[in-house]
Structure formats: C-alpha cells, structure tokens
Amino acid sequence: MININLLSVSNLPKLNKLRKLELSDNRISGGLEVLAERTPNLTHLNLSGNKIKDINTLEPLKKLPNLHSLDLFNCEVTMLINYRESVFTLLPQLTYLDGFDADDQEAPDSDPEADGDGLEDEYENGEEDDDDEEDDLDEEVIEDEEDEDDDLEGEEEEDGVDDEEDEEEDGEDDEEEEADDDLPRGEKRKRNLEDEGEEDPEDEEDDEDD
C-alpha cells in the first residue's frame, strides 16, 4: 500500500499469514498497535516516508516477535540523536534497520521467503522442464522425418536400378531385332522357326529325299 495517502492502518483486515507489508510514502503518524493485532507474523515492515516523529511511536512493534527488518527512511524520527541505537534497544528482535544491522552490515538484497522468490524459482524451473520436454519432442520429430527421408531415398534408388535393368533388357531385344533385320529373308525365317522349335519344310523335304 505505497503512496495512497493513508493516515492510519486502523482499517487493515486481519492477515495472520502476512509476512511483508509496504506502507511507504503515506501520512501515517501512529496507531501501529493495529499491526500487532492484525498482522502478528510480520517479518518485514516498510514505513519510509511517513509522519513518524519520535521513538515512542514505534513501541507497539515490540509485540511483533518475528519482525526483523524495519525501514523508516525519510521519517522525521531518523533525525533524532542516537536514533539507530534507540530503535535497536526498543525492538531487540530487529536484525536490520533501514537496510543495515546494528554493526552497520548491509542486509541481503531480498528475503526469498518474504518476497515469494522461492515460488518464482519453482515456476521458472517448471517452465524449463517443459521447454526441455518440448526440445526432446522436437528432436524426436526431426529424427523421424530424417528416417522417412532416408526410406524414400532408398526406394527411389531401387526404382532407379529397376528402370535401368528394364532399359538394358529392352536394349538387348532391340539389338536382336536389328540383327534379324540384317539377315536374308530365308535365314531370318529359318531362325524364327528354330526359336519356335519347328523345322524348315525344305529341310523336311531333303530328309525325305535321303
């Protein structure tokens, strides 16, 4: 609920599972006891840019035992002397105030649990698995298409061989016919009779004379 001109959090519903609450750039000046009542499991609270002026305004946050990160940037309270030491003393459960711990060590960029990054990672991993499965399917389809192409090429080669054999046989028949055309008429007829298994009548007459 960033920059929506909130004056208080009195109308906040009960959110027992809420972990991170963004209330920056509003006009909240107090009434933080509502947070302890309605968001008891808060771990991150951002009140930057509000009208919080003194340390005592933060006292209700003591009832948030899991609160370990609090942001008060651009609030007047940050201008107080010993501001950081006072807040850490008031709220001993805090680990980070305005992005740094009590030893001025910077907080990590984000808390995976509070930001829901874990869920995003799972979602992204699920997408990657789906992509891998799609890639595997694409590879199988490509392999099947290549096998089909190989089979078609093999069939075409066989057809080509058969056509060549038919052409050779036709060529032999044509050569035999041309050779027969060159023979004298009598020889050609005699040859045809021999091919058909018959004897030439003239040869039969010669045999009778003998």
Please describe what this structure looks like:
By secondary structure, this protein is mainly alpha-helical. The chain has a 4-stranded parallel sheet with strand order 1-2-3-4, covered by helices on one side. The protein has helices at residues 33-38, 83-90, 112-115, 117-182, 185-196, 201-209; strands at residues 20-22, 44-46, 69-71, 96-97. The termini are far apart. Strand 3, helix 2 (83-90) and strand 4 form a beta-alpha-beta unit.
Which structural class fits the helix and strand makeup? mainly alpha
| DSSP summary, beta strand count | 4
Enumerate how many helices there are, as a single number.
Answer: 6
Fraction in helix: 40-55%
Span between N and C termini?
134 Å
Spans where pLDDT lies below 50 across 5 or more residues: none
Percent in strands: 5-15%
Strand order of the largest sheet: 1-2-3-4
- Biggest beta sheet summary: 4 strands, parallel
What is the element string, with H for helices and E for strands? Answer: EHEEHEHHHH
Shape: elongated
Rg, Å, rounded: 50 Å
Average pLDDT rating: 76
